[in-house]
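User: My instructor asked us to take a sequence, write out its structure as tokens, and then describe one feature of it. I'm not sure where to start. Here is the sequence I was given:
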Amino acid sequence: MPADLAVIGLGPLGLPLAQAASAAGIATVGYDPDDRAVDGLSAGRPPVDGTLTAAALRRMLAAGFRATTDPAELGRARTAVICVRTPLGEDSSLDLRPVGDAARALAAQLRPRTTVLLESAAYPGTTEEYLRPILEEGSGLRAGRDFHLAYAPSRLDPGNRRYGSANTPQVIGGLTPACTEAAAAFYGRITDRVVRARGPREAETVKLLETNYRHVNIALVNEMAVFCHDTGVDLWDVIRCAETKPFGYQPFRPGPGVGGHGVPIDPNYLAYRGRSLGYPLRMVELAKEVNDRMPRYVIQRCALLLNEHGKAARGARVLLLGVTYKPDIGDQAGSPAREIAARLLEMGAQLSYHDPYVPQWQVLDRPVPRADSLYEATAGADLTVLLQHHRTYDLQGLAVKAQLLLDTRGASPAGTAHRL
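Assistant: Let's start with the prediction itself. The structure tokens for your sequence are:
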């Protein structure tokens, strides 16, 4: 059956796009080579990471959404959007192989006048220098002449109840003016506002700037958290006061580390070109260094708190609250909770966890016991550590029950817990 849209990659990027398109009345097919993921979606089972609720999936299926592992379906859509993950490799470069695999699957089915869009995180130049040759070689068609090609950075914020696809402006940058307008015509059916970039490189760099802006500012407040703790200053009160300034300041808050799918990207690592620019983005590198050491700082604070109360980390009963990377969702991508848990286990702590969105959790290839009764587990733990503030947590009540509570999110009432 023909479709207006084919979404390639049914993960944290692709599923929300498919959901928004289906809600807008766009006939949508989702392609993913993962049999289990496709079978689960087709049977009405949402992904365990909370990307999609069961109710939302039911509405999508009722609207005609189909998930498939058959690449032939890609040739029947007028618009194809590549939404696969591009994680960081061991050398801190983006792994573009998933984009290449998706492009080859699409190229074999590509028809003239199709609009091809890339939403995956990418370096400036990826659309033109990496994606375009794969599509042209595999299809025999020419981008900008036989089919449209553009980049559109994903601006998804999972769990955000205020901003979604409709009211978040979509940036697009096409290979040619006609490519840009074809992309604008598609996204104009989903979002209230389309912003045209000068070209694909500018659109790709928008993603790079937005992601690195977040990491650099989080690194700043993470450093301030360590500084303020050492000097006896209440950083959370500092932030409360600073955010009253109506100009020149945007509040960010510290935490136990930085997770999620939006990784800090340094264009010095242009692995797909086989060369680098010859210089790094120094602020990005420093921010990554600061944020990467926050889990170790949390461990230091845990050990210090236990020691101050006459207990050693070895043998201590430690309860971790919230192990996802964002509040009120089940996605654990890049969550600092895993590193913190691993270090506590290596120190000999008796570890347990609670998270309303994560029914099972493994660290160092072994299951971590899940606390069934939250308040009983909190009362029985030598140390409770809040790593993620889900709305369901009554922190005032938990603070009363806890022997020791370390709040890494500054969410507990002042004076009821030790804050990061």
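For the description part of your assignment, you could build on this observation: Residues 270-275 have pLDDT under 50 and may be disordered. Try explaining in your own words what that tells you about the chain.
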